[in-house]
Amino acid sequence: MPYPHLLTPEEKLADAKELLSLPRIVVICGSTRFMTEMNEAEPRETKAGRIVVKPGCDVKSPHELWSDPGEAGALKVRLDDLHRAKIRLADEALVVGDYIGDSTRAEIAYARSLGKPVRFTHPDVDPDA
17 lies in a domain? Predict the structure, then answer.
């Protein structure tokens, strides 16, 4: 008697999205120096019928929630973990901006390692092109 195929977490998520009739989910990636561009991409993606997730904190801009330099390192780690979770949730990634730094390069590699399509607002910066 063959064993039933056990679904991976990714397959379970895909099935749940289908059962819920969710539209495609796009995660916006890129340097937070491009927060303006991220905020401009969000309504375009929404108008196209996609659910949008993106960075929620721009720690390069002053804010009382991340003003303690002693907590900055731990916050960066938590935010990076949170963004990787958004990439796992998404069906595709949209990279904004005309510059790819180490963090964004890692986000692109992570999305691609999961088989997620990656689009660019500036295709010439694709590190794998």
Answer: no
Q: Is 8 helix (H, G, I), strand (E, B) or coil?
A: coil
Q: What integer pLDDT is reported at residue 1 of this predicted model?
A: 64
With a CB cutoff of 8 Å and minimum separation 6, the contacts of 109 are: none
Closest among 92, 87, 89 to 118, alpha carbons compared: 92
Residue 29 to residue 107: CA distance in whole angstroms: 7
Euclidean distance between CA atoms 72 and 85, whole angstroms: 20
Backbone angles phi, psi at 46, to 5 degrees: -65, -45
Query: Is residue 31 a part of any domain in this protein?
Result: yes
Write the CATH number for 41: 3.40.50
Please indicate, yes or no, whether the overall pTM of this predicted structure exceeds 0.85: yes
Residue 105's nearest CA partner among 115, 92, 120 is: 120
- Which structural domain range is residue 96 located in? 26-125
Express each pLDDT in 77-88 by its tens digit: 999 999 999 999
Spatial separation of the C-alpha atoms in residues 42 and 34, rounded to whole Å: 12
Domain count, the chain: 1
Q: Flag whether 19 is in a domain.
A: no
